[in-house]
Amino acid sequence: MTPTFKDSAQELGKVLEASLAMAPAVEKAGEAIVQAILAGGKLLTCGNGGSAADALHLAEELVGRYSVERRALPALCLNADATAITCICNDYGYEHVFSRGVEALGKPGDVIVGFTTSGNSANVIAAFEVAAKRGVTTILLAGKDGGAARGTCDHEIIVPSSNTARIQEVHTLVLHQWLEAIDATPWPETLP
Description:
- The chain is an alpha/beta fold and 192 residues long.
- The chain has one domain (22-183): Glucose-6-phosphate isomerase like protein, domain 1 (Rossmann fold), CATH 3.40.50.
- It contains seven helices and five strands; from the N terminus they run H-H-E-H-E-H-H-E-H-E-E-H.
- It has helices spanning 5-19, 23-38, 50-63, 82-92, 99-105, 122-133, 164-184; strands spanning 43-47, 75-77, 111-115, 137-143, 155-159.
- The chain has a five-stranded parallel sheet, sandwiched between helices.
- Helix 1 (5-19) packs across helix 7 (164-184), helix 2 (23-38) crosses helix 7 (164-184) and helix 5 (99-105) packs parallel to helix 6.
- The radius of gyration is 16 Å and the shape is globular.
- It starts with a helix and ends in an 8-residue tail after the last helix.
């Protein structure tokens, strides 16, 4: 039987209530993003499917704007370039689609946010592995039990739900909270 809107909204309410325990982790990860950019770093994002859309959403709000006028900020979504994706997948395999981007663009002081509702996306995990070797701060946004990525990142936000839709809805709330913190930051005209 198809859940009604009311059913889904009530389920989301329960997941949001349980997610309140994540607040310190969300705020700490958001501060890591702000501090990295203030120090001259950039934000990299990645994900698959709906999580790819979340990764795009986060990066575009930094380069563009969220809710206030501010300077453009350095962010790049690794799943945004179709030519790079098809080249890497064809030549190296899909599991390397994001790690090659981190290898090419990541530097110490940068941050990568990987979205994976299951925590088991091999290409996101591979990106985290390369990022860690390059001194890039890693932030996991997952759900369920955190999957294979759990315990591998500097910051981990694991939504307490096994429903992919509810996990993605909370991921959107988390990325919007980070954007609130970014918009509240007094950005200098130039960055290091």
